[in-house]
Amino acid sequence: MKWMKFIPLYLFISALVIIPGVYSLTKYGLKLSIEFTGGTRLSISTSLTGEKLTTSLSEISPVLENQDNNVYTIKGKPTSQSSVEAIITSLKKEDPKISLLDFETIGPALGSETIKKTVNALVIASTLLLLYISLAFKQIKYGLCAVLAMFHDTAVLLGSFSILGHYFGVEVDLLFVTAVLTILSFSVHDTIVVYDRIRELSKKIKGVSFEDLVNQAVTETMARSLNNSLTIIFMLLAMYLMGGESTRYFSLALLIGTITGTYSSTFTAAPLLIVWDRLFSKKS
Questions:
Q1: CA end-to-end span of the chain, whole Å?
Q2: How do residues 100-159 score in pLDDT, each as one tens digit?
Q3: CB 153 within 8 A of CB 260
Q4: Is domain 3-33+109-283 annotated with CATH 3.40.50.150?
Q5: CATH code reported for the domain at 39-106
Q6: pTM for the complete prediction?
Q7: What whole-number percentage of the chain has pLDDT above 70?
Q8: Cβ atoms within 10 A of the Cβ of 76, count?
Q9: Extents of the domains making up the chain
Q10: How far apart are CA 88 and CA 101, in angstroms?
């Protein structure tokens, strides 16, 4: 099948997915967890209502994040554990069994430092991948197209979580950062498989257009890419549906990234090489 005949369609599909996400990122941004913004998160077991708890903890501007039976997860401004325990002690008159199950606090300075380190990690990873792929294939177009496809996957993932954060309150935490870096490596790995096949075919087959070489490489690696990705997708889907609350959105991030990474390695990274080749040939 002539996969590369439909390059405009692939670019249209990518734009259709990326544009809403970019719009959401621009307008709403990402809903950051306290690991980035700083603050206090605590879990309280009590028979009291969530409204009663938030009223009692008003000094930290509390936000009720989750309610699981009689366990409430609350986020607010940075405070000390002793202050929270004093409030809980005062509430024992109404609920003798009330208890503090978990307490976590992060200062704003540490949250800001975490954001800087995250951005630096993404920049360093992208630069190293660009240099490595360019040197490995001895042409900068391979490195640039692979990194552009990687940015495609990143844009889809960030845009998806911006929308989820705005409409469903899904927060971005350090596990999400881990998922992003993992997906970048997966996306590039799958892209290199296609690129390596293009390089092998260019040595074996002479007298054919570059587009035909890319098309044959995509055809020969398609089954392998799909089979490999589906095994990961099924596992991640099971983790998302049956896993715990703490790893649910981590699994979802990996699931979205794996799907878009599988798509981009074939229908973004490879077409970009052809677009580059056409532009270069015209200039020549």
A1: 30
A2: 999 988 876 666 787 788 888 888 988 998 999 999 999 999 999 999 999 999 999 999
A3: yes
A4: no
A5: 3.30.70.870
A6: 0.86
A7: 98
A8: 21
A9: 3-33+109-283, 39-106
A10: 11
